[in-house]
Design goal:
heterodimer; A: 476 residues; alpha/beta; 3 domains; B: alpha/beta; 4-stranded antiparallel β-sheet; 4-stranded parallel β-sheet
Chain lengths: 476, 200
């Protein structure tokens, strides 16, 4: 096996095969499992009914995030604030009971370590390079930024992992997205991944695991890599990967659950072997020229509906494919947009900075850099910043970023998934637009009838100041 | 889960591309701690449109759904499969599926059938006439009263589980010894991998 050149994906896969069935299905060992309140209750229930224990409780970490309101968690006297929505409260309570009942570490909503699972995993050093990481959430792809094979699973698979610490899987095909050259000034990791999705399409990675390659990714910070890999799922790929390097190791060193002492050294030595060998072949390869990437924005209701900020709302007739023409017309009707309109003339009433895609400290710094000394436009009714974790929030407050945001007319919130998905009180009203740093512009995603334009944190800040979608490069 | 061998019936001619799991079941329905009753919220946004296919009496109770490319993209929510099952859908035919959703479907006894776009277009025509379509998993074919016959591919393990209504967790728990051997090797060679939350 060692003689054949392998891709990074193949190396991680091979290292996790417990056994292979005659039909080609492999039993894959799962190193790390993240659990949140929405996709786990039915899995715990099934274990209880069948009398099955959790095989390796220390390899699962539970954190509430999707349902949690992002308003104050404790009142003036320090008591926890009850969750108003009874269904959300019941779901959150179920996790709080289930996790300890099965011996699983649980981070409560009031802890400073609480946050969005995909922010917490890397931050705690729970997510590590070369590991297999799963969670009942498609944005688990995020952790691929550490060089981990990380992907979303359904609730039946959550149960499978809890009971067996494995999954029965068919190997995906390795795909390469190579980016040549350097990104221009004012162009972020989010713009790049939106551009990639716009180029390969929402099903372009279907059946594949994408490895992002090229010096652009090598030069990225760990946070930027997490942003890129996070949205691999929006390109249809199960997972995205970036080879671990010194940037990765520097990020992880000293994190609470990362290896320590001699184990750290051994781990780093192993992690250095985790790269695609020269001569390894990819089943599909796409090359992107970094110079072509501009600050990007979505116009429609699929993440593939991407245009540069200097572009215009497309005409359905622009698309060669009949089903895409139909979909484009439906999207335009939903979004209330007229073909030919310059994107910079699209007014914005709401701005959301947060989500597992863009709620880490660098995202908040990028947005704050644009907002410093500025204020949101009057037509922007609601602007919120939701840090990805309590630790991100504390760091931002130490740097005075909270003050920059509140001075600019933003609300500074508690960590959680917030307005990314319309499950908690943070929603965009019907018919209103939101410049959002989240990952999905689906119909109704941010609330029934809500119209989402996906952008980077800096572009969200620029939209808040301009009161319309705007090119951040004109502000900095 | 209920075994699936052969499904005969009318088909809902949705045809839409990139049907995401937020469309199949919006987030507000995910607050349940049960798998039951999600059909009430299934395709809620589409069903709000007058003349939608789901509420057309011609397709009431149809066990087959025909959709466009990239069906089930987006969120990993298995609630989407539970909602479809609650509507009585046992087969979805589309040119492609999201990886996660097709896995969730199979684990709930729903068969995802991948066929080329021209075959899907033809089946949409037949479905719109209100005619019955037959999906035979054993033979891996989709047939119509017009003698159309489309063969489809399926991963043999998925086929085996669907035909027999197998519980994967039970199957894998029977491999506990192999898993234990793998864990022992890892604990010896790379102990940090096995520490997890206990490292802190």
């Amino acid at each position: 096996m060692a003689s054949r050149p392998r891709t990074l994906y193949e190396k991680i896969w091979d290292a996790h095969v417990v056994e292979t069935r005659d039909d080609g299905t492999a039993l894959i060992y799962i190193d790390r499992h993240l659990v949140h309140e929405v996709t786990s209750p039915q899995a715990f229930e099934a274990l209880k009914v069948a009398g099955r224990p959790v095989r390796r409780p220390e390899l699962t970490l539970a954190v509430p995030d999707h349902n949690l309101p992002t308003t104050a968690r404790v009142d003036a006297s320090g008591k926890p604030v009850p969750i108003a929505d009874p269904e959300s409260a019941a779901q959150l309570a179920a996790l709080e009971v289930n996790a300890p009942a099965f011996g699983i570490r649980y981070i409560p909503a009031t802890a400073k370590e609480q946050g969005i699972v995909h922010v917490v995993g890397p931050e705690q050093g729970f997510s590590l390079p070369g590991t297999t990481i799963v969670c009942g959430d498609s944005h688990t792809a995020c952790h691929g930024g550490l060089g981990a094979l990380a992907f979303g699973i359904g609730t039946s698979e959550v149960e499978h992992v809890l009971a067996t610490q494995t999954l029965l899987l068919q190997q995906s095909k390795p795909m390469e997205v190579r980016v040549e050259g350097d990104l221009g000034p004012g162009v972020s990791a989010k713009d790049l991944i939106l551009h990639i999705i716009g180029t390969i399409g929402a099903a372009g990675g279907s059946g594949y695991v994408i490895e992002y390659r090229g010096k652009v990714f090598e030069a990225m910070t760990l946070e930027e890599r997490l942003t890129v890999c996070n949205m691999s799922i929006e390109a249809g790929a199960r997972a995205g990967l970036i080879a671990p390097d010194d940037t990765t190791f520097a990020y992880l060193k000293g994190r609470p659950m990362a290896p320590k002492g001699a184990e750290w050294d051994a781990a780093v030595a192993y992690w250095r072997t985790l790269h695609t060998d020269d001569g390894a072949t990819f089943a599909k390869s796409v090359t992107i020229n970094a110079a072509d990437v501009e600050p990007s924005v979505t116009w429609g209701t699929s993440p593939e509906d991407v245009v540069p900020i200097g572009g215009r709302v497309p005409h359905p007739g622009d698309f060669a494919d009949e089903s895409k023409r139909v979909a484009a017309q439906k999207s335009l009707d939903y979004m209330g947009l007229t073909p030919g309109t310059p994107m910079t003339q699209v007014p914005i009433e709401n701005v959301f900075i947060g989500s597992c895609t863009n709620s880490r400290i660098e995202d908040l710094r990028a947005a704050a850099a644009v907002l410093k000394g500025r204020h949101k436009a009057d037509n922007v009714r609601w602007a919120i910043v939701v840090p990805g974790s309590g630790l991100v929030k504390a760091m931002a407050e130490d740097e005075g970023l909270d003050k920059v945001f509140t001075d600019a007319g933003f609300e500074w919130r508690e960590p959680g998934c917030s307005a990314c998905l319309g499950m908690n009180p943070d929603k965009v009203p019907p018919g209103e637009r939101c410049a959002s740093t989240s990952n999905r512009n689906f119909v109704g995603r941010q609330g029934p009838g809500a119209r989402t334009h996906l952008v980077s944190p800096a572009m969200a800040a620029a939209a808040a100041v301009a009161g319309r979608l705007a090119d951040v490069r004109e502000l900095v | 889960m209920q075994p699936l061998t052969r499904v005969e019936g009318r088909a809902i001619p949705l045809g839409l591309k990139n049907v995401d799991t937020d469309i199949i079941i919006p987030a507000k329905w995910l607050k349940t701690i049960s798998r039951e009753g999600l059909g009430a919220g299934a395709f809620e946004v589409l069903r709000a449109e007058p003349g939608n296919v789901f509420d057309n009496p011609a397709y009431q109770g149809a066990p087959i759904l025909i959709a466009g490319d990239n069906y089930g993209c987006g969120s990993s929510r298995e609630h989407a499969a539970w909602a479809m099952l609650d509507l009585g859908i046992r087969v979805v035919i589309a040119p492609s599926f999201s990886d996660i959703h097709s896995g969730n479907a199979v684990k709930n006894g729903i068969l995802p059938v991948v066929l080329p776009q021209d075959a899907v277009d033809r089946l949409l025509e037949v479905a719109r006439e209100g005619l019955e379509i037959t999906v035979d998993l054993e033979a891996q074919t989709v047939t119509t009263p017009y003698q159309d016959r489309f063969a489809f591919e399926i991963d043999p393990f998925r086929k085996h589980c669907l035909l027999n209504g197998l519980d994967e967790v039970g199957l894998t728990m029977a491999r506990g010894e192999a898993i234990g051997g793998f864990e022992a090797q890892r604990t010896a060679a790379q102990p940090w991998l096995m520490r997890g939350t206990a490292a802190a």
